[in-house]
Design a protein that fits this description.
Elements lengths: L6 H5 L6 H15 L4 E2 L7 H5 L7 E5 L24 H13 L12 H4 L3 E5 L4 E2 L11 H15 L4 E5 L1 H4 L11 E5 L16 H11 L9 H4 L5
Parallel strand pairs: 2-3, 2-5, 5-6
Antiparallel strand pairs: 1-4
């Protein structure tokens, strides 16, 4: 792709469409009426800020944002520093311990250092009401994130897509397998991690594929080096 094509370049027209305007209006109305919505307004599009389109190497597709207080901050599976690590992320760390040599279990769930290396941590749905999972799934966010995936498919090459769980795998048909790589397995949730996620070795496989395409591998252990302020 042209080196400096940005998310803003390719999403400006999409954000002018009525469905997207209506999504933002619905979320704004919820907030205005006193309903707590996660993540905060300033954090909804953090994944796009931290991983520009021309830097994307890997896509990890999540589902809903976390719906408990102080967790969601716009990156799939990630929580802010000093917040207890959610169960799905604990299982991701367990798989990393088995898959990546010398991976040290982090004491936090802040995945920003992955995002800045080109791991696009996108949720299918970008907002949620506090305490109510999937409460914004009907707003049309999937239309937007389908478009985002199609943009990556079109403008990028040799991207590794990690699809964990049935919900995320609904987007697989958007991707041209002749241009990109797809690794899929069960969701890392405690309810399904034993159905294939544990032992999938997606992290080491991702780095093998990146190296084969002369791309710098992801330092998955970078999150272990981050020390949250107590």
């Amino acid at each position: 792709m042209t080196k400096n094509i940005t998310w803003n370049d390719v999403l400006t027209e999409e954000k002018k469409k009525l469905y997207f305007i209506n999504i933002l209006k619905s979320v704004s109305n919820d907030r205005a009426s006193g309903i707590v919505v996660y993540p905060s307004e300033k954090d909804v599009f953090n994944a796009f800020r931290l991983t520009e389109l021309f830097n994307v190497k890997v896509v990890i597709l999540g589902q809903d944002p976390y719906y408990k207080a102080n967790q969601a901050h716009g990156l799939a599976f990630s929580v802010l520093p000093n917040i207890p690590i959610p169960p799905s992320l604990i299982n991701i760390y367990k798989e990393l311990e088995q898959d990546i040599p010398n991976f040290i279990l982090p004491q936090h769930g802040f995945l920003k250092s992955w995002a800045t290396q080109g791991v696009f941590l996108l949720n299918s749905i970008l907002t949620v009401k506090a305490g109510k999972p999937h409460s914004h799934a009907h707003l049309g966010w999937d239309i937007f994130t389908d478009k985002v995936i199609s943009i990556i498919n079109q403008y990028c090459k040799n991207i590794i897509f990690l699809f964990w769980g049935v919900r995320s795998q609904q987007k697989i048909n958007i991707i041209d397998r002749n241009r990109h790589f797809i690794l899929k397995t069960s969701h890392p949730s405690p309810l399904s991690a034993h159905r294939g996620f544990f032992g999938c070795k997606h992290f080491s496989q991702t780095n093998i594929l990146l190296c084969q395409k002369q791309k710098k591998p992801i330092d998955w252990s970078s999150i272990s080096k981050y020390k949250p302020i107590a």
